[in-house]
Amino acid sequence: MEILGIGVSELLFVIIIALIFLGPKDMQKAGRTIGKWMRDVVTSDGWKVFQRTSSELRNLPARMMRDANDELAKFNKDIKEGMDIKKPTTPPRSVSTDSRPGASQPGPDLTPSKEPENTILPPSEKTSPQDKADTPKNE
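Given the sequence above, the corresponding structure tokens read:
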């Protein structure tokens, strides 16, 4: 058990030293004087300001986290409002699962495109830079 950073053994040591120096009668007088002084300090305006400041400093990290969280929530709300896209006024056409492209409905254009297809050649068909150097150029 510690009181103001002083353990039981230290407190007993201080009381014994005070008893030796002051004696039993002066010890009572010193105790009253110290008690009165401490009461005056605790009830003073300066002590109240100290306690209020100490409380604010203990609560400062929690308050800062709360304020930052509120700002983050506001920022997220602003982003969501900025990204809000107006919904179409007419609903999209629904395609039933039974409908298949046929004679009555036009199907997708399946004609082959004239663009070359991107393919990855196997290692045996790839040409290395050395092969290009060995092949004669048409001049």
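Strands lie at 2-3, 6-7. Try to locate this feature in the token string yourself.
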